[in-house]
Design a protein that fits this description.
Elements: H1 2-20, E1 26-27, E2 30-31, E3 49-50, E4 58-65, E5 68-75, H2 76-79, E6 93-96, E7 123-129, H3 145-158
Antiparallel strand pairs: 1-3, 2-5, 4-5, 4-7, 6-7
Helix pairs in contact: 1-3
Pfam families: QVR
GO biological process, one term: regulation of synaptic transmission, cholinergic
InterPro entries: QVR-like, Sleep_regulator
Amino acid sequence: MRIILYFASTIFLASQCMGLGILGLYCYRCVSTHPGCSTPFNWLWYWGEQCPEYDDKCVKIVERKGAEEIITRDCLSVLRSIRTDIPADHYEGCRPAAKDIRLGHYVNNSIKELDIHHDHYDSTNWCFCYFDNRCNSASSIMPSLLAVTIPLFMTWLCSL
């Protein structure tokens, strides 16, 4: 009887959380030119925002040119519309950006500041993560809300 009650309450709680949008992935969304978003990441400034798609991934892009370093943190679904150098492999971990040889191919532009070939930075690395909320920071130790709530709720429910 307890097993049936356990599964029924789990399904009920999961359906309630889906309606509230709690099951979506939360990612930090900022650029290192913003205060607190650079290499010593300050999570107190950015609490994270929910990604638009339910199966999204958090992304951290590190672009370097000499001593200059730009870090972009966002959701993969947001970056798909504005970036063409997304690696084909979206699994957990870091990998170099893909080269798009067709980018700027039909444009004859002599203004190098426009960066139509997207080759200003010497190295661009994409880091993907999707197993925990707000995982695109330098180090994240904040547990997921559901990972804490469901076991506590089940322990309370089974003790009745």
